[in-house]
Amino acid sequence: MIRLAICDDEKQDCLLLKKYVQEYMVKNDLNYDIHIFYNGKDLLQSDIDFDLIFLDILMEKPNGIEVAKAFLEQNKKTKNILYI
Questions:
Q1: CA–CA dist 25, 9 (Å, integer)
Q2: pLDDT in tens, 65-84
Q3: Is the peptide bond before 62 cis (omega within 30 degrees of 0)?
Q4: Beta bridge partners of 2
Q5: Nearest to 67 by CA among 13, 84, 3, 11
Q6: What whole-number distance in Å separates Cα of residue 32 and Cα of residue 76?
Q7: pLDDT, tens only, 39-65
């Protein structure tokens, strides 16, 4: 199972990216689980080891760079973060 997170403070952007990711996963017959977060604080409080995180850089405090740094410091298993 591929565990993915999408973190963006814009709900429309989250839903659109989720749609694209779901289409790709289904097309390639991949088993996946997508979690959506509308702010960095909620992502940082998650106890899930994600395989890939789609992270918006321009968010209210903490911004995407701050979230990525904190997430990597507390969760050594997740190494793949794509900034959107």
A1: 24
A2: 888 888 788 765 776 776 76
A3: yes
A4: 32
A5: 84
A6: 21
A7: 989 998 988 888 889 988 888 888 888
